[in-house]
Write a structure and sequence with these properties.
- This is Putative amidase domain-containing protein.
- This protein is of the alpha+beta class and 216 residues long.
- Helix content is 39%, strand content 19%.
- It is built from 8 helices and 8 strands, in the order H-H-H-H-H-E-E-H-H-E-E-E-E-E-H-E.
- A 6-stranded antiparallel beta sheet has the order 3-8-4-5-6-7. A two-stranded antiparallel ribbon has the order 1-2.
- A hairpin with a 4-residue loop joins strand 6 and strand 7.
- Helix 4 runs antiparallel to helix 5.
- The radius of gyration is 23 Å and the shape is globular.
Length: 216
């Protein structure tokens, strides 16, 4: 014999559901925690799936982005070294190797974990800027040239507008067009996978400047 099915009257079910939701909202402290969690999800939410997947990215660029997404919060210490509190260029450099770049005498590293060697261009934002400029491996772009920025390009920040570079990351998503282009980046040191460039230069470091390196 089939087991009997039990149904709650629709009105009663709605009343119970509403009571449960309301109960969560009025528990001491829980409403605020839930609100904070919601804000965190909104703040760190990935851009749309289309942009997150790097649609139309060349295979080598997709390999670079995949590496960033895999290791922005899970450091690849099995293959590379790590610099405490200053790992942004090191990680960007790693992603470029994954893209297909070969090391040279000005830009290289060897070793793993905390025991590794490197050139200044591998780990310093300013030295990396000079390396890209002198090597010709990338083309400098200003923030006014956002329409020319591509997935996998390099973003660099001058937090205090002193002329040097203070932070380096990889462009992981681009949204919009014309005068309404939003660029997102991923990287180490303030680890992130999709942080808005505009948030970085207007909220986190108000008045800061951003520059880009377009990679062929």
């Amino acid at each position: 014999m089939p087991r009997p099915r039990w149904f709650l009257p629709t009105a009663l079910l709605a009343l119970l559901t509403g009571t449960i939701v309301a109960g969560v909202a009025i528990l001491p402290g829980l409403g605020e925690a839930a609100s904070d969690a919601g804000s965190a999800r909104l703040h760190s939410a990935e851009p749309s799936q289309e942009r997150a997947d790097g649609v139309d990215a060349a295979p080598e660029v997709q390999a670079q982005l995949d590496y960033v997404h895999a290791h922005w919060d899970s450091y690849n210490t099995a293959e590379y070294g790590v610099l405490d509190d200053n790992d942004c260029v090191n990680f960007t450099s790693q992603s470029l190797v994954e893209r297909g770049w070969e090391m040279d005498e000005e830009w290289w590293t060897e070793g793993t974990g905390m025991d590794f060697d490197y050139t200044p261009a591998w780990v310093s934002s300013t030295a990396f800027m000079n390396y890209l400029d002198e090597s010709g491996r990338a083309t400098a772009l200003s923030d006014e040239q956002r329409s020319e920025v591509k997935l996998g390009d390099v973003a660099q920040f001058d937090w205090d507008n002193s002329g040097d570079r203070d932070h380096t990351a990889v462009v992981t998503a681009i949204e919009g067009s014309g005068d309404d282009i939003q660029i997102f980046y991923g990287g180490h040191t303030d680890d992130t996978d999709f942080r808005s460039v505009d948030e970085a230069i207007t909220e986190i470091h108000p008045g800061a400047s951003v520059y880009y390196w377009s990679i062929p």
